[in-house]
Write a structure and sequence with these properties.
- With 265 residues, this protein is an alpha/beta fold.
- The protein has a single domain, classed as 3-Layer(aba) Sandwich (Rossmann fold).
- It is 35% helix and 21% strand.
- The chain has seven helices and six strands, in the order αβββαβααβαααβ.
- The strands form two sheets. Strands 3-4-6-5 form a four-stranded mixed beta sheet.
- Strand 3, helix 2 and strand 4 form a beta-alpha-beta unit.
- Helix 2 packs across helix 4.
């Protein structure tokens, strides 16, 4: 559902064809981008998809893989539809791949608990149909009921705030004072500085995904400065408690032989 991932995946794997479903309008198979950005590669197709309750605009048994990445807060009906449609358009033995971020976090302190509780209230007021239960558990249960097999899953803790020596700067809000170092360069650095840099980058990405999944829709005018993570005290608490986001990474395979439905006599 996120435009950029499909764009860069298409660049990385030029022999595969990627179809990206997004509210972004189609543009003759090319993703509408500003003139300052490169055009989408030839193996990338942008397909407008306005409602997650609609059928996917593809025939049955079309794809080798369907990828569901960081879906926003949704109702159970939306999750059921996405999983059902994913299975429909998959070829037999094709894989459904998922990355699901939960609303609740692990090891929350009092400030984080209050912030998440307030966020749940705002989400419920904005749309009472949205499920506030664990999205990861909900999706795993639905995938099993839908008849997928070879379900492999891993739950990962993504740090909310980085741990860097130096006290208050551990929250990762002083980006402008730091050098622009790539993840590849950090991974080559085997010192504690390299580890701290990776943790900080991962935490920043985690907060961005949490914002996209759970906060953006209910923030007034989409004002990200009102995110719960704009609270420096909350980030300090998360650093102290080692608070982490709960991320599910999972894949499941569509059976080669459909499950038969039999009736008792």
């Amino acid at each position: 559902m996120i435009d950029d991932w499909a764009f860069y995946a298409a660049e990385t794997y030029p022999s595969a064809t990627f179809y990206n479903l997004s509210p972004t309008p189609s543009n003759n198979g090319k993703l509408s981008r500003s003139a300052a950005l490169p055009e989408a590669p030839n193996n990338h197709q942008q397909v407008q998809y306005n409602s997650t309750l609609d059928k996917f605009p593809f025939p049955r048994d079309t794809f080798e893989a369907v990828v569901l990445r960081f879906p926003p807060a949704s109702s159970d009906a939306v999750f059921r539809n996405l999983i059902a449609e994913g299975k429909r358009v998959l070829k037999p033995a094709g894989y459904l791949e998922m990355s699901i971020l939960d609303l609740d976090m692990m090891n929350m302190g009092n400030r984080a608990r209050r912030a998440v509780r307030s966020l749940k209230v705002k989400i419920s007021v904005a749309d009472p149909s949205i499920s506030l239960a664990s999205a990861a558990d909900t999706v795993l249960r639905m995938v099993g009921k839908r008849g997928f097999h070879d379900i492999k899953s891993c739950k990962v803790g993504v740090p909310v705030a980085s741990t860097v020596s130096g006290g208050s700067k551990a929250t990762g809000n002083s980006d402008s004072e730091e050098k622009d170092i790539s993840l590849a360069e950090m991974m080559k650095d085997e010192s504690s500085v390299g580890d701290a840099g990776i943790t900080k980058m991962v935490a920043r990405v985690g907060r961005w995904w949490y914002l996209r999944c759970y906060e953006l829709a209910i923030l007034p005018d989409g004002d990200t400065s009102r995110s719960i993570f704009a609270d420096t005290a909350l980030l300090r608490e998360c650093e102290k408690w080692n608070t982490s986001f709960k991320l599910l990474v999972c894949h499941a395979q569509k059976p080669v032989v459909p499950r038969r439905r039999t009736a008792s006599v």
